[in-house]
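=== Structure Prediction Worksheet ===
Name of assembly: unnamed complex
Input type: mixed (protein and possibly other molecules)
Chain count: two
Listed entries:
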Amino acid sequence: AQSVTQLDSQVPVFEEAPVELRCNYSSSVSVYLFWYVQYPNQGLQLLLKYLSGSTLVKGINGFEAEFNKSQTSFHLRKPSVHISDTAEYFCAVSDRGNTGKLIFGQGTTLQVKP
Amino acid sequence: EAGVAQSPRYKIIEKRQSVAFWCNPISGHATLYWYQQILGQGPKLLIQFQNNGVVDDSQLPKDRFSAERLKGVDSTLKIQPAKLEDSAVYLCASSSLGTDGRYEQYFGPGTRLTVT
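=== Predicted Assembly ===
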């Protein structure tokens, strides 16, 4: 079984500042890792995913994440945030079987202040 | 291509009433998922269909929740009778095999259910 822990429920940050949203996972098998973003009253949109290969993954909207197997982490970063990045961010894992079933963390609210 | 469609977007009912949600996946997507997202939590998978067959319904409260996907396209999720703790956003997602050899899920906007 897998589980995901997002270490911060809320992250306030000023516009143009860097941000890191933390995610740790637990699994007895190899996993795929994902970050999704959810804007108010909308569904989830995939930001980026780690399947294999390079541990640094680049996604949409200038976000990137680094997979660290020894620390079982997959933290999301952006060097300079915009007001429009204000949203809920979810880290998720799935096993490497092909059912596609996702296990989500509880979410981190990113609030970008002017 | 059109995205995943869900209706209604919002629903308010009293406890012990019944409610149904509808989902139309992206055309050609064989796999369909229903998730429950309680306020302040991440989405939790309720049921997964592959065409019109159930792949995983281990977390579906079968005493009150039911889902079907007749003809392997549209799906409905029903709650009968509803409880206060069923207040949540119900997300539908569908997936197809991507170029990386795995399924990528596309989410609908969700139905926000309030049980009073």
